Amino acid sequence: MSNVVPLLRPRPAPDAAARATAAVVSDLVTIAEQLHDIGARAAALGRPRTEAERTVQMVLDAVTSIERALDTITDGGDYTPF
Fold first, then answer.
1. pTM to 2 decimals?
2. Domain total for the chain?
3. Residue 72, class by beta-carbon neighbours within 10 Å (0-12 exposed, 13-18 middle, 19+ buried)?
4. Is the distance from CB of 37 to CB of 54 less than 8 angstroms?
5. Torsion sign, CA atoms 55, 60, 61, 62
6. Count of helices and strands (H, E) across the chain
7. 81 and 12 Cβ atoms separated by less than 8 Å
């Protein structure tokens, strides 16, 4: 009988589909963050109010679409690829 306890066990490598999904999720999150920044910058351009509101609304619509895509690909936000 041995009193040595293995502390580290090799973990199986994640499959290619999980890696690809994680990459897409990461890209979508990055794009959503960038769109939020773009919306803020567009609002500060000094354009006429109605034009600025329409521009910001369109950018927010794009963010909403990306968030819906994230919900779909992550099954409602419950996603652990590895």
1. 0.70
2. 1
3. exposed
4. no
5. positive
6. 2, 0
7. no
Is the pLDDT at 1 greater than 80? The verdict is no
Determine how many CB atoms are found less than 10 A away from the CB of residue 10.
5
Can you read off the two tokens belonging to residue 33?
A: 């963050």
Number of Cβ within 10 Å of residue 47's Cβ equals 13
The string over 27-38, giving b where at least 16 C-beta atoms fall within 10 Å of a residue's C-beta and e elsewhere, is ebeeebeebeee
Q: Any idea what DSSP says for residue 75?
A: T
Q: What is the pLDDT of residues 25-45, one digit of tens each?
A: 999 999 999 999 999 999 999
Residue 27 lies in a domain: yes
Class of residue 3 by CB neighbours under 10 A (exposed 0-12, middle 13-18, buried 19+): exposed
Range of the domain at 63: 14-74
Residue 69 located in a structural domain: yes
When comparing pLDDT for 31 and 2, which is higher? 31
